[in-house]
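TICKET #2291
ISSUE: user wants both folds in one file
ATTACHMENT 1:
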Amino acid sequence: MYSFFMRLLFISFLQTGSGLQTKLLKHIDGKVSTIASDELQNLYLVKSDVLEKYDLDGKYLCSYNDNTLGPLTSVDAGDPMKVMVFYRPFEQFVLLDNTLTVTGDPVSLENYGYEQVSLACMSYDKGYWFYNQANLELVHMSVADLSIDKTTGNISQLVNRSIKPNFLLEQNNKVFLNDPENGIFLFDIYGTYYKTVGIKGLNQFQVNGDKIIYLENKVLKTYNIKTFQEDTIPLPDSSIVSVRIEKQRLFVQNSKGVDIYEVK
């Protein structure tokens, strides 16, 4: 059942041909709150205040833990050499290298005058985006001197509705700000709003090229932001929580942990 599902998924999403085979490489047991992945096919697991890193075959590599900052809110591994971890309760983020070693002091956004930051992610220019709840705006921080060089302005006024975002990501020169009630707000890398994608009810998603990959009611879906084409793949296991796709690896988070599949 799973093998058939994997074939359909990768044919539809990655379009690498029909001669695909899948193999379960590893099951990582344990309670996982969030998973992330990078372009090198590494897997990152968040377990409360601990971040663990595994290679593409499920081999444990290293971990990071700073329990003085509270539960780890989110991980951005878009750059595997510079991983960002964000702690919402303390409005701080920490940068890690590829061994999950801290590369500098935690950056406290409160010290820069922002006391209600709920989301943060990396930017293409090695800078940082964060969402300031107080002014309902996205703010870009320069990597050079941590100065503020771009802002969107009040997003609620731009879209003419109340907003409550819960997920932030920059990918392919676009900034994606998710609001479960309203959809996904799209901005360019300069902070200019230009579109809302009407996918609602999401907590997180992955962007691969022009496709948004997400789970909706235990069904795996894709949406092409350029062609507006939608694809749907039913999932055989209702316990699946989230899915990540990286080249020849499929990472499936479920109620028992995470399964790593090889796709040939």
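ATTACHMENT 2:
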Amino acid sequence: MPGEDGVIELINVWKRYSTAAVLRGINLTVENSEFVSLRGKSGVGKTTLLKIMGLLEPPSQGEVKLFGKDVQKMGDDEKSNMRLNYIGFIFQFFNLIPSLTVLENVELPQALAGVNKHKRRENALQLLRYFDLANLANRFPETSSGGERQRIALMRALANNPKIILADEPTSNLDDENSAILMNLLATINRERKVTIVLATTDLHERLPANRDYLLKDGSLHPAG
């Protein structure tokens, strides 16, 4: 089981593509229940950094620990289990499956985790009611607004009660009103559910409900502000 502290730890993490270094010696520790923001212009490596944290991509150099465990010592099955049960992902373009209903999209991570149909449907309906979107349960994602789709994506990320949510520019396709709604929801989830959140954004000035705020520039992290 994951420990309470040092949820994510990056030690001298580098990422190179061909001869170009996108990340240059990143050092970062994210504690349990923190809300950390990563700001930076497009193409500076924010998504790459989130992928490394989420076990979707290995670093070229350096050490990554999740819940105190060295990722390099994990096998593929253990990494898959970690992603499925402890990490929730929110993507810039929602990544909802159009052929599934809203309810089925929210159920999907639980189905992959082997939760029985009755239980996962009950859990998904609870999330839909919590987010005040129960009326969308049997509709398909494309019939929903952008703000609704991003909230559906957030529900899907929460389906397996993750310890961590990694959010990659989740407001970039939303208007100001829906961006504010999503940020308030993330702040509430962080506060009430004690979920650790790492959020990447290209907005260098937006006020965020983060405990710590970083700027990623020239492959290095700097305190923002």
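RESOLUTION: both attachments delivered.
EXTRA DETAIL ON ATTACHMENT 2: The chain has six helices and ten strands.
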